Structures are given as C-alpha cells and as structure tokens.
Predict the 3D structure of the following.
Amino acid sequence: MQELFWFLPEWPPLLGDLVVFGALLVAGLLGGELVNRWLGLPRITGYVLSGVAFGPHALGLVQAPMLDDTRVVVDLALGLIMFELGSRLDAEWLSRNRWLFLAALAESLGAFFAIYGGLLWFGYPPLLAGCAAAVGTATSPAVVSLVAYELRASGQITERMLLFTAVNCAVAFVALMLLLPLVHLEHRADWRSALLHPMYLLFGAALLGFFACQLMLVIARWLGKREDRQFVLLMAFIVLVVGIARSVEVTVVVALLTLGVLARNLDTDHVLLPLRFGYAGQALFVILFVITGASLDFGLLAPASAVAAAFIVLRFLGKAAAILAFGGISGLRPGGAGLLSLSLLPMSGLAVIMVWDTAVLYPSFGMELAAVVLSAVTILELFGPLATQIALKLAGEASAESTKPPA
Amino acid sequence: MSEAQFKVSTPASVGVELELQLVRAHDWDLAHAAGDLLSRLEKRKVAGAVKPEITQSMIELNTGVHARWAELRDELQATRTAVVEEAGVLNLRVCGGGSHPFHDWSDRRIFPTERFKQVLERYGYLAKQFTVFGQHVHIGCASGDDAIHLAHMLTRYVPHFIALSAASPYYQDEDTTFQSSRLTAVSAFPLAGHIPFVKDWAEFLEYFERMKSYGIVESMKDFYWDIRPKPEYGTVEIRVFDTPLSVERAALLTAYAQALAAHHLHDRSRQPARAIYLVNSHNRFEACRYGLRGTLVDPFTGGKKKIGDDILETMAAVRLRAAGLVSTEALDALAADVRSGATDADWLRSRMGPKGSLADVVRAAAERWAGRL
C-alpha cells in the first residue's frame, strides 16, 4: 500500500510558516470582526486577542521561535506605517504653527519625565528607568493609524494625533540612543564603541532613508503621475529599505520614518502622488497585531501590575499636562486637549521591538526592561485601541458611516 | 417682518457670498474642519461674516453691502488673508473653484445645524452631492417690482455669468468636458430652475402663497433658482456663478453684474419677455459646456452669437453706466480675459496638463486663492 501512495506526505504533514501565517491571518480577521460586531470594539483588539489565543500562553499553536521568524513581517508592517506617519510630518505646517512643534515636543518630554520620575520613585535604577521611559514616550504608530483608518477619521484631533505620534516616536528613538552608551558602559564595553554604536544605528538609518528617498524621487519623476505605478514604487522602496536596514543592522523604523518625512518634505516639485496603502496594507497589519498579541507575556503582568498601572497613569498624565499647557496656543479647540491625550494612549508592537532590540544586545538588562515595560504594553494592547476610538468618536471626527469599508 | 415684505435697499448696491472649499494639505482631498476654522475666525475681527455651509468641508464668506466694486474687492482681500492665515494654523488650505475635482461625495459630513439636517433628510444623497461651490451676488432694489423686473432681465445674461465664472471642469475624478459642471449638480433639485414669468411683486407673492398652500415650499429659501428675489435683504440674488479661483475675480464678476443691473434698472426700453425663458436652458447648457466658446440665442433678436462676443458687445453697451459706478477698469479687465479666452476652468486644466494629477490641480487652486500664484 505504501508503495502505491508514495506521493502522499507523511502524516501529520509538516506545516510550514506560510500555513501558520495564513491561519493567523484568518484567525485575526475573524477575531477582529467578532469583537467589532458583538462588542463594538476596534478590530485591532480582536486581532490582538486572536494572537493571544494562538500564542504560547494559551493554545500554544505559535511558539517563541516562530515569533522570531515573524520579525521580518513585523518590521515590514511597522515600516509601512512609519513611512505613512512620516509623510504626515509636514514642515510647512510646523513653520506656520511653531507652537505646534513645541507642543509635540513637550508631549514627548512630558511622557518621558513622568515615567522616569515614577520609576525612580518605585526604586528602579536610573538607567533602567530612563530606558523604560524612552520606550514609553512613543505612542503606537500602528494603533493610531489603523484606528483612524478604520473610522475614516478626519479633522484636527486626528491630524494632531498622527503628527504627535510621528514626533514622539522619533523622540523615543533618539532618547533610547542617547541612553544606549550608558547601557554599553555599564556592561563594560569599550567607550568608543559605546558611543559609535548608537550613532551608527541612528545616523545609518537616517542616511539610508535619505538616499533611498532621493533615488525614489528620481524614479517617480520618470514614471510620471500614475497611481498604480507609484504604488508599486512605494511598496518596492519600503521593502527595499526595510531589507537593507535589516542587513546592515541599523534601526528599521527610523529608516522608514526618515524616508516618509523626506518624501513629504524633499518632494518640492510634488512628483509623488498622495497614496494610501488600502487593502494591501490591511492584510499586513492584521498579521502585525496577531503576532504582537501572540508575543504578549501575561506571566510578566502579575508581579508588576502596580508598576504597570503607575507607568500607564503617569505616562498619560505627562502627555496630558503638556498638551493642556500647549493646546490652546497651538490652535487646539477647547476640550480638544483631553481627547488628544486619550487618543495618544496606545502602546504596541513598536515598544515590543524596542525592548527586543535591547534584549539582543544585553539579555539580562533586556529582561529587566521587559518586566517593566511589557506589562504596561500588555494592558494598553487591549485598551489602547479602544481609547483612541473613543477619543476620535467624541471629537466628532469619525465618519458616521464607519461600517462602510474605508476607500 | 413678514417674509413676503420687500425690504427697500439702495438700487444697484452689491454684496457677495462666496462658498469656499477647505482641503487637507497632505492629500488635497476635502477636509472636515469647518467647525474648527470658524471658531478660530470668531476670535478674529473680519469684515462681513464667515459662516458654516451645508457640509464640514465648506465655509461661506459674506461681504457687507457696497456701492463700489473696489471697496468690495478690498474687503474680500482682507477677509481672504485672515481666512488663509487661520486655516494655515490648522494645516488646511482654502480654495475657490466650483467643484472639488476628486472628493468622494459619500464621505461628506453635514454641518450639524437643524436646517442642514432637514435638508439632508429631505434630499438624501443630493444634499451631499451638493458639495459644490458658488458665488452669489446680491443686487439692491428699491422695490419688489424692480426686483422682479431685474430677475427677468438678468436671466438674459445667465450664460455670461456662467461662462465668465466657470471653474468646475473636474468632478468626481473626471474631466467632465464642461467648463462648469457645478450647475448640473444644482439642476437635480426639484425646486431648481428659474422664477416663473410673473409680471410684478404682487403676482409673485400670489405664486409663492399658492406653492406654500400646496405644501411644496415653506419659505423663499426653498427655491434654488438661478436668479431669485431675496425680499429680506431687498435684493435680487444671482446664483449661477462658480466661485472663481481668486477674490479679485469674484470682485470683477460682481462689478459686471452691477453694471448690468444698473443699466436695466434705469433703462426700461426693453421689457421682460417670455422669449427669455424660451432660450434660457439652451443658452445655459452652451455656457456650461463650452463657456465663452459656446453659442447663445438672443431672445430679443433671435440671432445666434458666440457667448464671448455677446459679452464684449454687452460690456460696450453698458460702459457709460459702468463709468458712473467707477467700474470701467473692472469691465476692461474682464474684457481682456474674454478676448484672450482665459477662464478659470482652462487655468485648472492647464495645471493638470499631460503630466499632472488632480491633486496638483487642487494645490495650484489653493496657491492661487492665497494670492501666491
């Protein structure tokens, strides 16, 4: 019999990564629809919950090594989002409204110092507190972009939410890179490489983004203003820059953020069309959130719940205080400061990879950092999207017909 | 005061309403930001008024009443500057033009006032499709009878107004091939069209009361006519202009309408005739489709003429009247554009060019509105 059926695979067949990816995508999609239809929650929350269900802490269908393999997808999805976010950072707006840039900067610093101070009070060493605060400075770019997209949100709060997120992500990376030499020194690295390494990570990424942008603009000019061709061009460059950044080991998201910011601001002849990633992007983002969900470690939550709660509350208060202080003067409508602060609550995959990247260098320090930061991320992963959704709806910027699929 | 009572105003004084587009700087689509912009403008002293319109993507500038077009232009320029500055703080751009080239009408959000909600309730998708942008010119009249006379006589020039202001060649992502596609959107409303051929104010009121008793209209606001009397202002309102691409052109158009009105208020050698309405829809279509290059039928002589030529002849005929209103300079400027064939619609098309995109068209329109292009 066996000779006859030589063509059949072994049983059970060995399921490759592709099968797991496909299954995660289906599960995420269904989870997202379920929570949205039954509970009115953002779909993202459903993607994350599906990830949790599949992850090592529940069904165990996705194990940690698999999670490492998925890093390329995470980088790609985050890269896409950072590019889009970067392209919202409009230097012309900031020059017309200088208070706005100060407000965004204050928002970042407010979050940083609130968290830093809180963690010191809890007795954490300054360096660890600083790194955790740097990670906490960033709002999840993926969550805010996707919630805005899902609600077809448009208006001042939405615009500012995206702008502030772009700025606080940049500040978070710069802060982390400023702290990295200290981490290196504490682990007795040579002081020269302690200084050079962060500079390489940051400036290498920025240079990569710069050259890629120049080349992309040249090609775009030659292609002309055809949406279909420019879409492929953008996707190609995003994949390319993510790939190169990974190969030469510079910070992927910084490279893509740079590419996005420069694509907006160096394109003085406007050769690039305004593009959206639409359905293609959606599929990537579902996987991103399922994987983020699967990588959540609820084991960290119990021992650190008090710290996590303090982390979240102080982070919110730091952001809110700065936004309140600068809101009116930067042209925010009365009552807008609270909504904007609420919308900036999410933390997600970006925080996870910032911790991962540190953990790769110094595993034990990375573990300590993870214990502080990731418990807060776990909580915000579940409630952050909802906060953003509520803020945008209360701001009256969500489309009434948000059930209609976004264009 | 009853709605039917005609408030007397200075003959041939003018005032303007301009409906403007608010667009986002990152993708040049329409923004949803009228509320935020208006609340900023409230804190700033601007002449006239800036008001919400039916969707969150538009605002309306109202000027005061002026006897001279140059004063009107100065006021519009000052208001324009204020609006552009405040919009810049919110990363919005403002532009003229009769339509947004590529917005998705299903994405429009109605500005939340009772009247606008009722309009949405009544007209459904038409209300959102009505996201088009016009210039309304009010002309003062000494009596209701004058207003009716003027409404009829000015209808003769509707193709002029359309051709001179045409600035909506693109609609829903398409080059419509029209010079003004905006009026097609207006035509879909059941109460669009023109005023019935009534001989005086008393007869007009009779018509209005009858329509009211049928329950077809509640107020004069429900008539979306090309030209309608506006008794509470004591004016005749011309509504067929596309919002032009600059305030300067808006003022020039007003000067032309003012000269025509002054001429017909004063010189009664020609009287309203049914023939005006016989040729009206043909002439109107020609103007929307071909602009200055279209052909119109003169209701009084029955002759056929190029709309551009007819405008130049008319301008020559009212030149003395314009001199009295200190607006020959304005008429000359318009005439120069007619001779060279320059219209806002063609300007927009030139921005698209063989290599452009509709986003480029909107960006250029915003630059032009801001006075930078």
Remarks:
- The domain at 14-368 of chain B is CATH 3.30.590.20 (Creatine Kinase; Chain A, domain 2).
- Chain B has a mean pLDDT of 93.
- The interface with chain A takes residues 24-29, 31-33, 35-36, 39-40, 88-91, 104, 106-107, 109, 355-357, 359-360, 363 of chain B (CB under 8 Å).
